Amino acid sequence: MDRGYSKGRMWALLLLYGVVGLAVLCEGACNFPAIFNFGDSSSDTGAIHFVFPYNMLAENPPYGRTYFGRPVNRYSDGRLSIDFMAYALGLPFLSPYLQSVGSNYAHGANFAAAGATVRDLSFIAPISLTVQVNQFKIFKQQVLATKGSQGYLPTADTFKKAIYIVEIGGNDFSYGYMNLKLTPAQLKQTILPIVAKGVANAVKDLYNAGASTILVKDVGPQGCQPFWLTYFSHSSSDFDKNGCSISYNDAVLYYNQLLRGQLAGLRAQLKGATIIYVNTFDIIYDFIVNSSKYGFKQTVRACCGIGGKYNYIYSIQCGVSGKLNGQTVKAESCANPATYINWDGVHWTDEANKILTRQILGGKYFEPPFSFASQCNLRPI
Ligand SMILES: *[C@@H]1O[C@H](CO)[C@@H](O)[C@H](O)[C@H]1NC(C)=O
Question: What is the pTM of this model?
Answer without folding.
Answer: 0.92
